[in-house]
Amino acid sequence: MPELTDELERRRELGQDLHDEVWEGVYWVAPGRGTPHAIVDDELAAALRPHAIAAGLTGTGIFNLGEPEDYRVPDHGYHRGVPTGTYVPAAAIVVEIVSPDDRSWEKFGFYAAHGVDEIVIADPEARTVTLWQRKPTGEYDEIPSSALLGVSAHELTETIAWP
User: 80-89 as b/e, with b when 16 or more CB fall inside 10 Å?
Assistant: First the structure.
């Protein structure tokens, strides 16, 4: 479809495609982040940064986890070593900030398949941070504290100046 191709190219040129994802070959157009999302993103990144540095992890903002025909775009990532390239095959930790109609919870299986040890979910509406750790089965359990970062969900929830 030429019209769709033109629209996707226009989104790329305007920088509106930064959060778009490809799920098993299907392109998902993601709307721009709202202000509450952006505020929590900034607050959480500041809160996690010293813990990531102490743990020897490299932090990134949004990045493409996966490969060209199947990738997700977490809000942040923490990596063992310095990731390179457009598509990153794995991450130690990913951060998702919940927005209206987003699919954060549906990404858990994908994250497990890509070796993500922990997931941080921040929900601006509920004003909560939850932490999830991958089990050997590939499923995630909610945990009170991050084994990799040495910080609790409660501490992170209390640190954020929620909008």
Answer: beebeeeebe
